[in-house]
Protein backbone atom coordinates (compact mmCIF):
# COMPACT_ATOMS: atom_id res chain seq x y z
CA UNK A 1 0.00 0.00 0.00
CA UNK A 2 3.04 2.30 -0.21
CA UNK A 3 3.94 3.66 -3.65
CA UNK A 4 7.40 3.31 -5.07
CA UNK A 5 9.57 6.43 -4.75
CA UNK A 6 9.05 9.18 -7.32
CA UNK A 7 10.04 12.75 -8.03
CA UNK A 8 7.44 15.50 -8.02
CA UNK A 9 7.21 18.51 -10.34
CA UNK A 10 4.51 21.18 -10.08
CA UNK A 11 3.90 23.00 -13.36
CA UNK A 12 2.11 26.33 -13.95
CA UNK A 13 1.23 26.04 -17.64
CA UNK A 14 0.52 23.42 -20.29
CA UNK A 15 3.82 24.36 -21.98
CA UNK A 16 5.66 23.60 -18.74
CA UNK A 17 3.82 20.27 -18.52
CA UNK A 18 4.83 19.38 -22.08
CA UNK A 19 8.44 20.37 -21.37
CA UNK A 20 8.44 18.19 -18.25
CA UNK A 21 7.01 15.25 -20.23
CA UNK A 22 9.68 15.73 -22.90
CA UNK A 23 12.39 15.84 -20.24
CA UNK A 24 11.28 12.81 -18.22
CA UNK A 25 9.76 10.66 -20.97
CA UNK A 26 7.21 7.86 -20.76
CA UNK A 27 8.05 6.98 -17.15
CA UNK A 28 6.52 10.30 -16.03
CA UNK A 29 2.81 10.60 -15.24
CA UNK A 30 0.54 13.62 -15.23
CA UNK A 31 -1.30 14.19 -11.96
CA UNK A 32 -4.84 15.60 -12.02
CA UNK A 33 -6.90 15.04 -8.88
CA UNK A 34 -4.86 11.93 -8.06
CA UNK A 35 -7.94 9.92 -7.09
CA UNK A 36 -7.29 7.19 -9.64
CA UNK A 37 -3.55 7.49 -10.12
CA UNK A 38 -2.50 7.41 -6.46
CA UNK A 39 -4.55 4.28 -5.61
CA UNK A 40 -3.00 2.36 -8.50
CA UNK A 41 0.46 3.63 -7.49
CA UNK A 42 -0.16 2.32 -3.99
CA UNK A 43 -1.00 -1.06 -5.55
CA UNK A 44 2.15 -0.69 -7.68
CA UNK A 45 0.09 -1.14 -10.83
CA UNK A 46 1.69 2.14 -11.90
CA UNK A 47 5.27 2.99 -10.97
CA UNK A 48 5.99 6.43 -12.44
CA UNK A 49 9.41 7.88 -11.74
CA UNK A 50 8.09 11.45 -11.87
CA UNK A 51 4.67 12.96 -11.13
CA UNK A 52 3.90 16.16 -13.07
CA UNK A 53 1.23 17.94 -11.04
CA UNK A 54 -1.20 19.91 -13.23
CA UNK A 55 -2.97 21.41 -10.21
CA UNK A 56 -1.08 24.71 -10.53
CA UNK A 57 -2.41 25.45 -14.04
CA UNK A 58 -5.23 27.78 -13.04
CA UNK A 59 -6.31 28.61 -16.61
CA UNK A 60 -7.30 24.97 -17.26
CA UNK A 61 -10.29 25.35 -14.95
CA UNK A 62 -13.28 26.93 -16.71
CA UNK A 63 -16.69 26.36 -18.27
CA UNK A 64 -17.80 28.51 -21.19
CA UNK A 65 -20.27 28.49 -24.04
CA UNK A 66 -18.52 28.44 -27.41
CA UNK A 67 -20.99 28.48 -30.31
CA UNK A 68 -22.99 25.24 -30.35
CA UNK A 69 -20.75 23.69 -27.71
CA UNK A 70 -19.83 24.03 -24.08
CA UNK A 71 -16.07 24.01 -23.51
CA UNK A 72 -14.81 22.70 -20.16
CA UNK A 73 -11.17 23.02 -19.10
CA UNK A 74 -9.47 19.76 -18.22
CA UNK A 75 -8.56 21.01 -14.76
CA UNK A 76 -12.18 21.64 -13.82
CA UNK A 77 -13.18 19.53 -10.83
CA UNK A 78 -16.20 17.22 -11.19
CA UNK A 79 -17.87 19.06 -8.31
CA UNK A 80 -17.72 22.25 -10.38
CA UNK A 81 -19.09 20.47 -13.46
CA UNK A 82 -21.97 19.19 -11.33
CA UNK A 83 -22.77 22.64 -9.90
CA UNK A 84 -21.96 24.97 -12.80
CA UNK A 85 -25.03 26.87 -13.99
CA UNK A 86 -23.97 26.81 -17.65
CA UNK A 87 -23.50 23.02 -17.58
CA UNK A 88 -26.79 22.56 -15.73
CA UNK A 89 -28.65 24.59 -18.31
CA UNK A 90 -26.85 23.70 -21.52
CA UNK A 91 -25.80 20.09 -20.88
CA UNK A 92 -27.85 18.83 -17.94
CA UNK A 93 -26.89 15.19 -18.55
CA UNK A 94 -23.23 16.09 -17.98
CA UNK A 95 -24.00 17.91 -14.75
CA UNK A 96 -25.94 14.87 -13.57
CA UNK A 97 -23.30 12.26 -14.40
CA UNK A 98 -20.60 14.37 -12.71
CA UNK A 99 -22.81 14.42 -9.62
CA UNK A 100 -23.06 10.62 -9.63
CA UNK A 101 -19.27 10.13 -9.27
CA UNK A 102 -18.28 8.71 -5.89
CA UNK A 103 -18.86 11.06 -2.97
CA UNK A 104 -18.34 14.82 -2.49
CA UNK A 105 -14.70 14.41 -1.44
CA UNK A 106 -13.93 12.50 -4.62
CA UNK A 107 -15.78 15.04 -6.78
CA UNK A 108 -13.91 17.93 -5.17
CA UNK A 109 -10.57 16.41 -6.24
CA UNK A 110 -11.28 14.49 -9.48
CA UNK A 111 -10.80 16.46 -12.69
CA UNK A 112 -12.39 16.29 -16.11
CA UNK A 113 -9.00 15.61 -17.70
CA UNK A 114 -8.25 12.83 -15.24
CA UNK A 115 -11.50 10.96 -15.70
CA UNK A 116 -11.21 11.21 -19.49
CA UNK A 117 -7.55 10.11 -19.58
CA UNK A 118 -7.96 7.30 -17.07
CA UNK A 119 -10.50 5.47 -19.28
CA UNK A 120 -12.11 3.30 -16.65
CA UNK A 121 -14.94 1.37 -18.36
CA UNK A 122 -17.18 1.97 -15.33
CA UNK A 123 -16.70 5.73 -15.18
CA UNK A 124 -19.70 8.04 -15.21
CA UNK A 125 -18.46 11.14 -17.02
CA UNK A 126 -17.04 9.30 -20.07
CA UNK A 127 -20.36 7.40 -20.33
CA UNK A 128 -22.26 10.70 -20.41
CA UNK A 129 -19.78 12.22 -22.87
CA UNK A 130 -20.06 9.23 -25.20
CA UNK A 131 -23.84 9.67 -25.35
CA UNK A 132 -23.54 13.43 -25.79
CA UNK A 133 -20.87 13.43 -28.51
CA UNK A 134 -18.25 16.14 -28.79
CA UNK A 135 -14.51 15.87 -28.44
CA UNK A 136 -11.51 15.74 -26.16
CA UNK A 137 -8.90 18.38 -26.99
CA UNK A 138 -5.30 17.41 -26.32
CA UNK A 139 -2.10 19.40 -26.63
CA UNK A 140 1.21 17.80 -27.54
CA UNK A 141 4.57 18.75 -29.03
CA UNK A 142 2.89 19.28 -32.43
CA UNK A 143 0.12 21.53 -31.11
CA UNK A 144 -3.54 20.84 -30.38
CA UNK A 145 -5.87 18.22 -31.86
CA UNK A 146 -9.45 17.22 -31.13
CA UNK A 147 -10.26 13.55 -30.60
CA UNK A 148 -13.95 12.72 -31.19
CA UNK A 149 -15.31 11.04 -28.07
CA UNK A 150 -16.20 8.04 -30.25
CA UNK A 151 -12.46 7.51 -30.85
CA UNK A 152 -11.07 8.53 -27.47
CA UNK A 153 -11.45 5.36 -25.38
CA UNK A 154 -9.77 2.53 -27.25
CA UNK A 155 -9.47 -0.30 -24.72
CA UNK A 156 -9.30 -1.28 -21.08
CA UNK A 157 -7.69 1.80 -19.45
CA UNK A 158 -6.41 2.76 -22.92
CA UNK A 159 -7.06 5.90 -24.95
CA UNK A 160 -6.05 7.63 -28.15
CA UNK A 161 -4.15 10.18 -26.01
CA UNK A 162 -0.39 9.84 -26.46
CA UNK A 163 1.97 9.79 -23.47
CA UNK A 164 3.37 13.19 -24.48
CA UNK A 165 -0.05 14.86 -24.79
CA UNK A 166 -2.04 16.71 -22.13
CA UNK A 167 -5.84 16.80 -22.13
CA UNK A 168 -6.66 20.50 -22.09
CA UNK A 169 -10.39 20.68 -22.79
CA UNK A 170 -13.58 18.72 -23.34
CA UNK A 171 -16.12 20.10 -25.82
CA UNK A 172 -19.75 19.00 -25.60
CA UNK A 173 -22.71 19.89 -27.84
CA UNK A 174 -25.33 22.04 -26.11
CA UNK A 175 -28.44 19.91 -25.69
CA UNK A 176 -30.46 22.49 -23.76
CA UNK A 177 -33.95 21.23 -23.02
CA UNK A 178 -33.60 17.95 -24.99
CA UNK A 179 -34.67 14.98 -22.89
CA UNK A 180 -32.00 12.81 -21.31
CA UNK A 181 -31.72 9.94 -18.88
CA UNK A 182 -28.99 8.36 -16.76
CA UNK A 183 -29.45 5.10 -14.88
CA UNK A 184 -26.62 3.82 -12.70
CA UNK A 185 -26.94 0.52 -10.89
CA UNK A 186 -24.84 0.25 -7.73
CA UNK A 187 -24.90 -1.79 -4.56
CA UNK A 188 -24.49 1.38 -2.46
CA UNK A 189 -25.26 4.98 -3.40
CA UNK A 190 -21.64 6.17 -3.76
CA UNK A 191 -20.28 3.07 -5.51
CA UNK A 192 -18.95 2.68 -9.00
CA UNK A 193 -21.46 1.53 -11.60
CA UNK A 194 -22.04 -2.19 -11.93
CA UNK A 195 -23.70 -1.08 -15.17
CA UNK A 196 -24.93 2.37 -16.22
CA UNK A 197 -26.80 3.72 -19.24
CA UNK A 198 -26.92 7.29 -20.54
CA UNK A 199 -29.45 8.38 -23.18
CA UNK A 200 -29.87 11.65 -25.07
CA UNK A 201 -30.99 12.56 -28.58
CA UNK A 202 -31.46 8.91 -29.62
CA UNK A 203 -27.95 7.96 -28.54
CA UNK A 204 -27.21 5.49 -25.73
CA UNK A 205 -23.89 4.82 -23.98
CA UNK A 206 -23.17 2.06 -21.49
CA UNK A 207 -20.69 1.76 -18.63
CA UNK A 208 -19.05 -1.51 -17.65
CA UNK A 209 -20.36 -3.55 -20.57
CA UNK A 210 -16.96 -3.92 -22.29
CA UNK A 211 -13.32 -2.91 -21.85
CA UNK A 212 -14.33 0.71 -22.44
CA UNK A 213 -17.50 2.72 -22.26
CA UNK A 214 -19.50 1.78 -25.38
CA UNK A 215 -22.45 2.94 -27.45
CA UNK A 216 -25.51 0.66 -27.64
CA UNK A 217 -25.51 0.81 -31.43
CA UNK A 218 -28.18 -1.85 -32.02
CA UNK A 219 -30.54 0.10 -29.78
CA UNK A 220 -29.74 3.37 -31.56
CA UNK A 221 -30.31 1.80 -34.98
CA UNK A 222 -33.63 0.31 -33.85
CA UNK A 223 -34.79 3.70 -32.54
CA UNK A 224 -33.79 5.31 -35.84
CA UNK A 225 -35.93 2.71 -37.66
CA UNK A 226 -38.91 3.69 -35.50
CA UNK A 227 -38.87 0.81 -33.00
CA UNK A 228 -40.50 1.38 -29.63
CA UNK A 229 -38.33 2.09 -26.60
CA UNK A 230 -39.12 -1.35 -25.18
CA UNK A 231 -38.13 -3.10 -28.43
CA UNK A 232 -34.98 -1.04 -28.90
CA UNK A 233 -33.84 -1.46 -25.30
CA UNK A 234 -34.01 -5.25 -25.65
CA UNK A 235 -31.05 -4.94 -28.05
CA UNK A 236 -28.87 -2.84 -25.72
CA UNK A 237 -26.39 -5.60 -24.88
CA UNK A 238 -25.82 -6.66 -28.50
CA UNK A 239 -22.17 -6.29 -29.45
CA UNK A 240 -21.04 -5.78 -25.85
CA UNK A 241 -18.66 -8.04 -23.93
CA UNK A 242 -19.34 -7.63 -20.21
CA UNK A 243 -17.14 -9.38 -17.70
CA UNK A 244 -18.05 -11.30 -14.55
CA UNK A 245 -16.80 -10.33 -11.11
CA UNK A 246 -17.83 -10.44 -7.46
CA UNK A 247 -20.54 -7.80 -8.12
CA UNK A 248 -22.32 -9.35 -11.11
CA UNK A 249 -21.85 -12.01 -13.74
CA UNK A 250 -21.95 -11.24 -17.44
CA UNK A 251 -25.56 -12.42 -17.93
CA UNK A 252 -26.78 -10.22 -15.11
CA UNK A 253 -24.89 -7.26 -16.61
CA UNK A 254 -26.61 -7.93 -19.94
CA UNK A 255 -29.98 -7.92 -18.17
CA UNK A 256 -29.05 -4.63 -16.44
CA UNK A 257 -27.96 -3.03 -19.72
CA UNK A 258 -31.37 -3.76 -21.28
CA UNK A 259 -33.31 -2.64 -18.22
CA UNK A 260 -31.29 0.53 -17.55
CA UNK A 261 -31.37 1.48 -21.24
CA UNK A 262 -35.15 1.23 -21.26
CA UNK A 263 -35.41 3.37 -18.13
CA UNK A 264 -32.92 5.95 -19.45
CA UNK A 265 -34.77 6.19 -22.78
CA UNK A 266 -38.11 6.51 -20.97
CA UNK A 267 -36.71 9.36 -18.86
CA UNK A 268 -35.41 11.06 -21.99
CA UNK A 269 -38.77 10.68 -23.72
CA UNK A 270 -40.70 11.98 -20.71
CA UNK A 271 -38.83 15.31 -20.60
C1 LIG B 1 -13.30 6.39 -3.44
C2 LIG B 1 -13.42 6.69 -4.90
C3 LIG B 1 -14.64 6.52 -5.53
C4 LIG B 1 -14.79 6.79 -6.90
N1 LIG B 1 -16.00 6.61 -7.47
C5 LIG B 1 -16.15 6.87 -8.80
C6 LIG B 1 -17.42 6.70 -9.43
O1 LIG B 1 -18.42 6.31 -8.84
N2 LIG B 1 -17.49 6.97 -10.76
C7 LIG B 1 -16.42 7.41 -11.49
O2 LIG B 1 -16.56 7.64 -12.69
N3 LIG B 1 -15.22 7.61 -10.90
C8 LIG B 1 -15.06 7.36 -9.58
N4 LIG B 1 -13.85 7.53 -8.98
C9 LIG B 1 -12.72 7.95 -9.81
C10 LIG B 1 -12.53 9.42 -9.77
O3 LIG B 1 -13.57 10.03 -10.49
C11 LIG B 1 -11.18 9.59 -10.45
O4 LIG B 1 -10.30 10.17 -9.57
C12 LIG B 1 -11.17 10.36 -11.70
O5 LIG B 1 -11.99 9.74 -12.61
C13 LIG B 1 -9.77 10.55 -12.25
O6 LIG B 1 -9.59 11.88 -12.14
P1 LIG B 1 -8.35 12.48 -11.39
O7 LIG B 1 -8.35 13.94 -11.69
O8 LIG B 1 -8.35 12.07 -9.97
O9 LIG B 1 -7.15 11.79 -12.20
P2 LIG B 1 -5.74 11.26 -11.68
O10 LIG B 1 -5.94 10.16 -10.71
O11 LIG B 1 -4.87 12.38 -11.29
O12 LIG B 1 -5.16 10.68 -13.07
C14 LIG B 1 -5.79 9.57 -13.69
C15 LIG B 1 -5.02 9.30 -15.01
O13 LIG B 1 -5.23 10.38 -15.91
C16 LIG B 1 -3.98 10.98 -16.27
N5 LIG B 1 -4.24 12.41 -16.36
C17 LIG B 1 -4.74 13.23 -15.39
N6 LIG B 1 -4.96 14.45 -15.88
C18 LIG B 1 -4.58 14.42 -17.18
C19 LIG B 1 -4.57 15.39 -18.23
N7 LIG B 1 -5.03 16.65 -18.08
N8 LIG B 1 -4.10 15.02 -19.45
C20 LIG B 1 -3.67 13.75 -19.67
N9 LIG B 1 -3.65 12.80 -18.72
C21 LIG B 1 -4.11 13.13 -17.49
C22 LIG B 1 -3.02 10.57 -15.18
O14 LIG B 1 -1.68 10.56 -15.64
C23 LIG B 1 -3.52 9.19 -14.85
O15 LIG B 1 -3.05 8.26 -15.80
C24 LIG B 1 -13.67 7.26 -7.64
C25 LIG B 1 -12.43 7.43 -7.00
C26 LIG B 1 -12.30 7.16 -5.65
C27 LIG B 1 -10.97 7.36 -4.98
Distance between the termini: 47 Å
**H-E order:** EHEHEEEHHHHHHEEHEEEEEEEHHH
Main sheet specs: 5 strands, antiparallel
Would you tell me the overall average pLDDT? Answer: 97
Number of helices: 12
Molecules bound to protein:
flavin-adenine dinucleotide
Low-confidence stretches: none
β-strand percent reads 15-25%
GO molecular function, one term: oxidoreductase activity
EC number: 1.2.99.2
Keywords: FAD, Flavoprotein, Oxidoreductase
Organism: Modestobacter italicus (strain DSM 44449 / CECT 9708 / BC 501)
Helix and strand layout, with pairings?
Blueprint: E1 7-10, H1 14-24, E2 28-31, H2 37-42, E3 50-53, E4 63-66, E5 69-73, H3 78-83, H4 85-90, H5 92-99, H6 104-109, H7 112-118, H8 124-132, E6 135-140, E7 143-148, H9 149-152, E8 153-155, E9 158-159, E10 166-173, E11 180-185, E12 195-200, E13 203-207, E14 214-215, H10 217-224, H11 229-233, H12 250-270
Parallel strand pairs: 1-3, 2-3
Antiparallel strand pairs: 4-5, 5-10, 6-7, 6-10, 8-9, 11-12, 12-13, 13-14
GO molecular function: FAD binding; oxidoreductase activity
Protein name: Carbon monoxide dehydrogenase, FAD binding, medium chain
Domain FAD-binding PCMH-type: 1-177
Quick rundown:
This protein is an alpha+beta fold. The protein has helices at residues 14-24, 37-42, 78-83, 85-90, 92-99, 104-109, 112-118, 124-132, 149-152, 217-224, 229-233, 250-270, and strands at 7-10, 28-31, 50-53, 63-66, 69-73, 135-140, 143-148, 153-155, 158-159, 166-173, 180-185, 195-200, 203-207, 214-215. Helix 5 (92-99) packs antiparallel against helix 8.
Amino acid sequence: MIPSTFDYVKVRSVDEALAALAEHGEDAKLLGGGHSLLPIMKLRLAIPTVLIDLGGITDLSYVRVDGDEVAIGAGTRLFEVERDEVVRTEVPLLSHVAGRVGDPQVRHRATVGGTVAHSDPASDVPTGLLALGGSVVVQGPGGRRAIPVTACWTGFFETDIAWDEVVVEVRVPRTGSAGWGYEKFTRRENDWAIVAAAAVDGRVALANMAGTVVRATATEEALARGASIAEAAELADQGTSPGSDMHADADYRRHLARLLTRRALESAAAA
